[in-house]
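User: Show me a protein chain along with its predicted structure.
Assistant: Here is one chain, sequence first, then C-alpha cells.
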Amino acid sequence: MKSFFKSTSMALCAVLMATTAHADMVLINNDSGPNRGVRAAAVNYLTEQIAERTGGAVTVENNWGAALFKTTAALESIGIGVADMGVVVGPYAQSVMPELAMGSLVLPDASPWVMMKAMNELFTTNETIKARMDEKNVVYVNHYALPPGLVACKGEGISSIEDVPGKKMANTGGFSALFNELGANMVSMPIYETYQATETGLVDCSVTYSYFAVATKLNELVDTMTPVNFAAVTVVITFMNKDSFESLAPEHQQAIRDIGAEMPDYYGRTLGAADKRAMEVMSTGDDAISFSEFSAEDTEVIRKTGATVTEKWLADAKATGLDGQAVLNELLALIEKYKELEPA
C-alpha cells in the first residue's frame, strides 16, 4: 500500500511539474533589427499581446540586432530551435523557400495593409506552403510590410535609370536586384549593414524605407533619395519553432494565430503614421535630403525589368519543387480581393 501511495504521489508531482512548466512558457525571440522604429514597436506590441491574451502563461523575451543568429541564418536557426521564434527576411531564404521572398517582386500597386492581409491568408490556407513550412519545422505568425522603397545615395544620386550604371549599390535582396539588371555594381549584404557600408564608402546607394532609414540613422549619411513606388514590399516574417509552438496549450496556440492575423490592422495604422513622420524628418530642416522622382518612362522600364527578376524567382521556385506560377497567381488574386476590402 505504501508503495502504491508513493508511486501515485510521484506521478502526481510529475503531472503538476509538467503543468507548471506548460503554464509558464518564456519564448526566446530573435529580431534582426534594432529596438527602434515602428516595426520594433510592432514586435513589442505582438509580444505584449501574447502575454496579455494568454494571461501571462506565455511571455516573450526579445533579443535585438540579430543577437542570437545572423539574419541570413534565421530560417534554419528557428527551425532547429536556436530560438523559439524570430524574424526571417524572405530574400535571404529564397534559395530554400522562394515563397518567403515573393513579396519583394514587382507586383501591382498595393498598400502595406493589402499586402499583409493577402500574405496572411496565403500562408495560413495554402496547403503546399503549409506543408513546406512543416518540413522546415516552423509555424507562421505574421508578415510585416514596408512603406514605399527609396533609393538612397551618398553624393550624386539616382534620379534616372541613366544614373544607375557603375553605381556601387547594396544588394540586400528583394527588388534591389532590379538595379543589377540596370547596370549597377552590386555588393551583397543584409539591409542592416547598409549604414556601415555607406559610411565607409563600400556602397554609394541602397534601397531603404522611410522609417528604417531614420531608425538606423542612414538618413544622416545620404544626400539624395528617389522613391520607387510598387506594391509594398512584404518579406519580413515572424515564425515560431514548430516544437515550441506545439508545446503550448491549444488555446495559447490559437491566441498566437489570432494575434498574427490581426497584426495588419494594428501595424497598417502605425506604419502609415510613422512613414509620414519619417518623410517629414528627412525632407525638412538644415540637413534635409534632396528628393527626386523617376520619370514615367523610367518607371515603366523598371517595371519591365521586374519581369526578369520574376523569371529568376520562378526558376528558384521550380528548383525547390514549388509551383511558383500557381502560388504567384493565388497571391495576385488575394491582392485584388483585399484591395476591394481595404478601409477607406
